[in-house]
Design a protein that fits this description.
alpha+beta, Arc Repressor Mutant, subunit A, Muramoyl-pentapeptide Carboxypeptidase, domain 2, 2 domains, two-stranded antiparallel ribbon, 6 strands, 17% strand, WH-like_DNA-bd_sf, Tscrpt_reg_IclR_N
Length: 236
């Protein structure tokens, strides 16, 4: 078993850089490399290379292979980089998790839409930079900041040309889950917009969100604070 390098935090940083270099070499060499090959290419001691390889294998970033030998002697070990994660598969996993959570809220909470609005409201406040004390953000600035937040999440929002208080949302990154659990997912999005605008101290709020007015289009309607409906009370 290789002995890990010890010492100061500076040495730990150097060890991390060296390990990354070993991993880069493995990724650039699909056929695999042995300990001595890596030592020659990196200039590291073979014991240090073994330590880095042990860590990479333990972390799931590298794979160890035993090469068959025709002649007697110790089998040669070679190492390859582990396959990179499949982003599409990761996306499906997150969608599955979202399905579980949305269906649980829809099926077990007395007022799922109210609970979802409350959750979205809390996260909307969290995602928003709070203005200075006693400063009220003008409507135009607030809407611009809200559009930026929605865009960062992946909604690709745009203001309707005919009405600056309508936000068109042509892309929902959670569409498949929303189609199955609209009362939860769309309520979260409505609450998120309300929370963001409330955190800014904006003179408008999200009055309502109309989902799927077209197959790939939702529309959010803003309204002045004094005429907008009061958000539903927290669920119990």
């Amino acid at each position: 078993m290789a002995v890990p390098p010890q010492g100061s935090a500076q040495e730990s940083v150097r060890a991390g850089v060296s390990r990354q270099r070993v991993l880069e070499l493995l990724r650039a060499t699909p056929e695999g490399l042995g300990v001595q090959d890596l030592a020659d290419r990196t200039g590291l001691h073979t014991n240090t290379v073994r330590f880095h390889l042990d860590r990479l294998v333990a972390d799931g970033l590298a794979q160890r292979h035993v090469e068959e030998r025709a002649e007697p002697g110790r089998p040669r070990l070679s190492f390859t980089a582990a396959p990179r994660p499949d982003p599409a598969r990761d996306s499906r996993n997150y969608q599955f998790l979202a399905e579980i959570l949305a269906s649980y809220v829809a099926g077990t909470v007395d007022r799922p839409a109210a609970a979802a609005v409350e959750a979205g409201h809390t996260w909307g406040r969290y995602l928003t930079e709070r203005p200075a004390p006693y400063r009220r953000v003008p409507e135009e600035e607030a809407v611009t900041r809200l559009l930026r937040i929605l865009d960062d999440i992946g909604f690709a929002p745009e203001l309707a040309a005919e009405d600056p208080r309508q936000i068109r949302i042509p892309h929902c990154p959670f569409r498949e889950v929303a189609e199955a659990h609209r009362e939860v997912v769309c309520a979260i999005h409505l609450g998120l917009m309300r929370g963001a605008l409330a955190e800014m101290g904006a003179p408008v709020t999200a009055d309502r969100l109309v989902p799927f007015v077209e197959p790939s289009l939702c529309v959010a309607h803003l309204a002045p604070i004094d005429t907008a409906p009061t958000p539903p009370p927290p669920s119990r």
